[in-house]
Design brief:
This protein has about 80 residues and is mostly beta strands. Helices cover about 10% and strands about 15% of the residues. Strands 2-1-3 form a three-stranded antiparallel β-sheet, with no helix packed on it.
Length: about 80
């Protein structure tokens, strides 16, 4: 994924779902506004529910960790 490659070590936890072709970059709450993003990128609204897999789930077609928790969060400005 280009965004993941570009961020490199600056990436915090990332969830991926190959079935739905979605990637979820975890950023600090309130650090972004919906209007800042390019086409195809969506900011989840406060209170939105997302599925979180167990920590060790790092592969497969359904929701899994592409970058496991433990490195902080991705800076929205990056």
């Amino acid at each position: 994924m280009p965004a993941l490659d570009a961020l490199g070590r600056r990436t915090g936890p990332v969830l991926a779902n190959h079935t739905t072709q979605t990637w979820l970059f975890l950023v600090p709450p309130g650090s972004v506004s919906p209007g800042r993003w390019i086409s195809g990128v969506r900011v989840m609204p406060r209170g939105a529910t997302i599925g979180i897999p167990p920590f060790g789930t790092t592969g497969g077609r359904d929701i899994h960790w592409t970058v496991s928790p433990g490195r902080g969060v991705t800076c929205a400005d990056d």
